[in-house]
Design goal:
elongated, two-stranded antiparallel sheet, alpha+beta, Cytochrome Bc1 Complex, Chain A, domain 1, 14% strand, 265 residues, four-stranded antiparallel β-sheet
């Protein structure tokens, strides 16, 4: 079993966000307001509510609005969210059918063979699971790595046309109506728990998926899934008593020491 958490990208410049806000809302640029008109906004009170931490390297989406305008003061509301990273979700869509076809049907490594998108809270992850009665853990790990390399090169590599079909299929799957009242209720309560009160997470994920280009996805997949994967292999030795090469993690404390960028609250 192997899980690959998402990588974090560069942070967005908050000064540019404020300039954009004044250009759109006040029809005057922020530098002109400060430097020419000599109008300032000294802060007299701040109230904050933190629901989930941002890590260094996250892409932050900043929403600015005016909550109240008085005779001598104004209240600004800042809502900062982590941008959805759809690349692992999209990679799951691309790999899941081929993973089962090649490793279960053709290579017959085991009855339990699956590639699945497995996000935990705001941390996306892609898991590759094989339970094999005929192959050792190192052989299974090698088969998974070979499959990932073959996704980009060789006879079974993903083409631009296939990429487009996968994108359409994933968008349709994300926007599929809830199957029942319980599924719909779970969606809304999950959004409330995350303070995402616009209830637009599915639409934002669709927009992120549609923005991915074939070339950008290939480069990301090569860097993060093939060349230098940020993977956490989970194995049992079975009757062969063998494990893949690499350090052994005995518990959560060891994992945190080795991979300081992963935080679990």
């Amino acid at each position: 079993m192997r899980f690959r958490p998402a990588s974090l990208a560069a942070a967005q410049d908050s000064n540019a966000t404020e300039s954009d806000f004044f250009d759109d809302a006040a029809s005057v640029s922020y530098p002109h307001l400060i430097n020419v008109l000599r109008r300032g906004f000294p802060t007299v009170a701040i109230e904050s509510e933190f629901t989930a931490p941002l890590q260094y390297g996250d892409i932050a989406l900043v929403k600015i609005s005016i909550g109240k305008i008085g005779r001598s003061s104004a209240t600004f509301n800042y809502e900062i969210r982590r941008k959805q990273d759809s690349r692992l979700c999209f990679s799951a869509q691309i790999t899941k059918s081929g993973f089962f076809q090649q490793l279960r049907t053709e290579q017959q490594l085991g009855y339990v063979v699956s590639a699945l998108y497995w996000p935990q809270y705001d941390v996306p992850a892609l898991g590759f699971v094989i339970q094999s009665p005929s192959a050792s853990a190192p052989e299974v790990a090698t088969a998974i790595e070979s499959f990932l390399r073959g996704t980009l090169e060789g006879e079974l590599a993903i083409t631009g046309e296939q990429f487009g079909r996968h994108k359409l299929a994933l968008v349709n799957e994300i926007m599929q109506p809830h199957k029942n009242i319980w599924e719909e209720s779970e969606y809304f309560w999950d959004a409330i728990a995350k303070r995402e009160l616009d209830f637009d997470s599915r639409q934002r994920l669709v927009e992120a998926v549609e923005a991915i280009s074939f070339e950008a996805w290939q480069a990301w997949f090569q860097e993060h899934m093939v060349a230098a994967p940020a993977a956490v292999p989970v194995t049992t030795a079975g009757r062969w008593g063998e494990r893949p090469e690499g350090s052994v993690v005995e518990g959560a404390a060891d994992l945190q020491k080795q991979r300081g960028s992963y935080t679990v609250d």
